[in-house]
Design goal:
Shape: elongated
Structural class: alpha+beta
Number of strands: 4
Strand order of the largest sheet: 1-2-3-4
Radius of gyration: 34 Å
Length: 267
């Protein structure tokens, strides 16, 4: 029997209360937790969080199963979620008192794919803040989310495991963690690049180099426009060398003290 079948219905409020009690118990044991908390109707609000969820939902392998995790995320069942390079670990409160452990492994982004994306971003992303806020051309957004050649993983690049007794390839606990990843990207979009094991700096370094080169070129053009001494002499009719000698002669004259009347002395 799977963890999904033949279970009595548990109201959402009861599930949420159970999750909160479990978090409290674990924290009393000095266990550090990073729970997923959702506020509002949308699971994700930023470009990166939304794009992550949409990427999962557009694959036929996932679309019929991942929905099972949405309610779990909303009910606070993901007690802990940690993102590391190529790996996500989660702790999910299920129907049993002991939470289930979920582990998701994602293959690194192909080097050829990454190099093509970095080249396409050249000159189009103006700052790190613009990148994490999703402020870039639609052409880059389409490139980032392209199937097979984008930044987001396909199902064949993802492997997952849960300690629950459900034999399904994707149980609701795994689905909850997958959605929880999108929520975590809302909090810190740079975690996406950490998960995919690529350097976020590479997407903007070329833009920064171009900006630096432009500023340097502008500075050089400005210096070339400066008048040299011959130009100034001709423009104002002044012999600068003669003026410099006069100034030096003036500065070399000794300073003479003014002589005053001698003071009278009393006999």
């Amino acid at each position: 029997m799977s963890d999904w079948d033949y279970k009595p219905y548990v109201p959402a409020s009861a599930r949420k209360e159970r999750a909160e009690k479990t978090i409290e118990k674990l924290r009393k044991k000095n266990i550090q937790l990073s729970p997923i908390q959702v506020s509002g109707r949308k699971l994700a609000k930023t470009w990166w969080g939304t794009a992550w969820n949409e990427n999962l939902e557009r694959y036929a392998d996932y679309v019929n199963r991942i929905e099972r995790g949405r309610s779990y995320v909303r009910q606070g069942a993901v007690l802990d979620l940690v993102i590391k390079p190529g790996q996500v670990t989660g702790l999910v409160q299920g129907s049993r008192s002991t939470p289930y452990k979920v582990e998701i492994t994602i293959q690194p982004l192909k080097q050829s794919t990454w190099e093509a994306i970095v080249a396409a971003c050249s000159g189009h992303i103006h700052s790190l803040q613009d990148l994490v806020n999703g402020k870039f051309p639609q052409s880059l957004a389409d490139l980032f989310t392209a199937k097979g050649n984008g930044l987001f993983p396909s199902p064949r690049e993802i492997s997952m495991h849960c300690t629950c007794p459900d034999r399904a390839d994707m149980c609701k606990h795994i689905a909850a963690v997958l959605y929880g990843i999108g929520v975590r990207f809302d909090e810190d979009p740079t975690l996406f690049f950490q998960l995919r094991q690529v350097s976020i700096d590479e997407l903007i370094s070329d833009t920064l180099d171009q900006t630096s080169d432009a500023l340097l070129s502008r500075s050089e053009r400005k210096s070339h426009r400066s008048l040299d001494s011959d130009d100034i002499s001709g423009l104002f009719g002044i012999d600068l060398e003669e003026a410099d000698r006069a100034q030096e002669s003036k500065s070399e004259k000794p300073i003479q003290k003014k002589r005053g009347r001698p003071k009278k002395t009393q006999a």
